[in-house]
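PROTEIN DESIGN WORKSHEET
SECTION A - STRUCTURE
LENGTH: 189
TOKENS:
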């Protein structure tokens, strides 16, 4: 299955997915990285792995619809079937949602519907919850609101700070995201 990863940041999830794809652990081909940030480190990771990057500058466009049409064009050219969001800090608009209905995944570092949006780990710590985790869901027009596909819980230990929790969440994400993608490819989800 041909996939595209959308990312705006460091790209650790991208890296794991693209490597596993190249090693044949995952039955996907990462055809494209879509990135909206000029200096996002994920781009170097893509270059190192030989994954083509489509980087666009949102401020060069008047409307979301305009840049999503450009994205759609490259996705179609590359025969992309599944979109995998991994730290893409934008809401997906109707253009992509309609073209890839039910075929856009996102990963979020909390047990949704708790703590949607930015800084989910900090939000969880502020709220003094004892358990947080990771959610993988289908993307709809809302912010972190689509149907949940998989979740895993993580206990927050006494005295743990955001960076300690983030490290554990990241390890969980790197295990869970490829697993779910593979299940989708196999038709198990
Ligand atoms: C992850 O924590 C993911 O849950 C969130 O953005 C972060 C991306 O991390 N949506 P990375 O860029 O893959 O390291």
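SECTION B - SEQUENCE
RESIDUE ASSIGNMENT:
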């Amino acid at each position: 299955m041909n996939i595209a990863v959308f990312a705006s940041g460091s790209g650790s999830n991208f890296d794991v997915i693209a490597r596993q794809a190249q090693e044949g652990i995952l039955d996907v081909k990462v055809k494209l990285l879509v990135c909206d940030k000029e200096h996002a480190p994920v781009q170097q990771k893509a270059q190192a792995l030989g994954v083509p990057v489509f980087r666009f500058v949102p401020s060069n466009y008047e409307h979301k619809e305009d840049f999503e049409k450009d994205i759609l064009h490259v996705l179609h050219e590359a025969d992309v079937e599944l979109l995998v969001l991994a730290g893409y800090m934008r809401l997906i608009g109707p253009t992509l949602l309609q073209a890839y209905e039910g075929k856009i995944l996102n990963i979020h570092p909390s047990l949704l519907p708790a703590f949607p949006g930015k800084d989910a780990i900090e939000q969880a710590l502020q709220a003094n919850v004892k358990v947080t985790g990771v959610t993988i869901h289908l993307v709809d027009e809302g912010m972190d609101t689509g149907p949940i596909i998989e979740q895993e819980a993580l206990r927050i230990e006494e005295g743990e700070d955001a960076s300690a929790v983030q490290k554990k969440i990241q390890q969980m994400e790197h295990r869970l995201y490829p697993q779910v993608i593979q299940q989708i490819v196999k038709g198990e989800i």
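SECTION C - NOTES
The chain has a mean pLDDT of 97.
Residues 162-185 form the longest helix (24 residues).
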